[in-house]
Amino acid sequence: MTTATATDETAIATRRARVVELLRDNVSQRDIATRLGVSKDVIYRDVQALARGAATPPDQEHRAPSAPEILAVALPAATPPQAPATPSRDTATPAAPCLAVPLDGALLADLATLTRNGTTPEDALRRAVAFMARAYRQAWERDIYPRDANPVIGRYQYETHQRSQPQTVSPPDSPPR
Question: Does residue 86 contact residue 125 with C-beta atoms inside 8 Å?
C-alpha cells in the first residue's frame, strides 16, 4: 500500500465519521455535501458504504469499520450485543420472530436520535412502531382514512414534562422538627 492510498483512506474514514455525526444531527445529505465541500453523490456513496459496513471499494485490501463498529459510533446508547446462546435441539425453545432491516444512514440517524436518552434501540423501535400503529388504527376506526391508505399525521401534541422533585433530607445530627 502506498502512502497516498493510506492518506486517501484516512481522509475517507475521517469524512465518513463526520457524515455519521451530521446524520445523527438530522442534517440532510445535500447539506452535508455542502458543509464538507464534496458532491452530494460522494455523500450518497458514503452513506451506502456505511450502511453496508464497507468503507472502501471491494478491490482494495483495507476494509473500513464493520456494521457493529459503525453502530457503536452512531448508537452510543445501545447496549453491547450479548453472545447468543446456542441451546441444543433437545432443549431449544422456539425462537421469537425477528425483523431484519437494512440500516441506511437515515435510519441510523433516526435511531441515534431515539436512543440519545439511553433507550435501547429495541425499545425505541417498539415505541415508534406502537405509536404509529395507534395513530393508523385511530384514523381507520374513525373513518378519517380508508383502511387501504396510510394516514398523514399533521401535528404532534406533547405532554408537559414533569420534573421529579428532589427529596430534601435533614442532616443526620439535626433534631426532628
Answer: no
